[in-house]
Amino acid sequence: MTESVLLVGGGGREHAIARALADDCDLHACASNRNPGIASLAETFENVDETAVDDIVAVAEQVDADAAIIGPESALAAGVADALDAAGIYTFGPQESDARIETDKAFQRRFMADNDIPGSPDYAVFEDLDAACDYIDDYDGDLAVKPIGLTGGKGVRVIGDQVTAAEAKEYLRGADYDGVVLEERLVGEEFTIQAFVANGDVRTTPAVQDHKRAYEGDEGPNTGGMGSYSDTTMELPFMTPDNYRDAVAIMEQVVAALDDYKGILYGQFMLTAEGPRVVEFNARFGDPEAMNTLPVLETPLLDVITAARDGDPLPSLSFSEQATVCKYAVPDGYPTDPDAGTRIEVDEGNVGDAGLFYASVDEREDGIYTTTSRSFAVVGLGDTITEAEQVAEDGLTAAGDGLRIRHDIGKPELVQQRIDHMAELRE
Ligand code: AMP
Ligand code: GLY
Prior knowledge:
alpha+beta; D-amino Acid Aminotransferase, Chain A, domain 1; 3 domains; five-stranded parallel beta sheet; 31% helix; binds adenosine monophosphate; binds glycine
């Protein structure tokens, strides 16, 4: 029997999920934007908002879905997995209460403390923003300022890195956040590990490094992620196998302490001189990180989802042992003042050996239009990061005008800077 699978979400991450599933199942999709890449792989594509719980359940029933997979955190926070599960459609994505590991940063830190999970920085939670400002004044050292709820990766301000203490206080006083976590600033190199989780099993994938800052040389505001790379092994060039194992051990403790978590668990770590510390957890694949991981995953994604659904052990994963480099093309002005609604040219014939992943664009009758978010990504694979980077750059000739790219991602100079930074911290 061919399985029917519903995919929720219309970004680059979901295009990567669609590509990993399309050959093995009858794929159906729904998202608020018509993603041309997903639409061309799916048998049906419905324009439905990712948080419209009842409409998504209706689509799933209409296509007679045997399973569903959710891309974006907004859908998890809205309870889409709960509603689909309740309607009898197994959903590879956590229930709203488990997704709090991502959607509520105060819950996340308290959960780690209550369960004695190592790797958390010192933190304090405030609902009163004036009290938070006093804490900033009194704290001996730099702090990361994190609004409690979802901010699309753009809400955090790190004192001593992006802002001064005075600017951080001004930021808090000018915002209407319900609360904030203030935590010790971690210094090191960041990496992500994504794991498939179900029935207590945890299957991890190669570490990826994202680039959150908008401009080359890690300048400018934080974004959802401008691009990312992974190596041929499970680690990145600045990591040791022990660093990878220590991070995985933390993730396993998180899964053990949660109640039957299912879906992707994404661990964001700071590799410090003392080893990996937890920056955050997400309850879904990363975007862009999914585009690094899924193209090298040789185990069929469908097999993972059906094993999870059927209560079988998750398959052990195999990877093609290639390095990957992903680079996003984003609208001019992204993320502060993005040029939405502009028609862009993407010359699919020009991507060469790179993979092209459409993201938050909208396909209309007369062409492809930007939204306020990232437009599309190219992913190069190769025997080294440098080779993969060149493949990605060749693919970027597909990008027309009105788009911005961080060309430095995956280049040898930037990777070497990361290695040197870690070597310095370890001294
Ligand atoms: P988050 O939304 O928690 O992923 O935070 C966004 C970015 O802020 C992270 O990728 C880090 O670069 C930075 N960040 C968050 N927490 C900390 C911390 N405790 N120390 C240093 N940087 C942090
Ligand atoms: N790339 C960061 C995220 O998906 O949250």
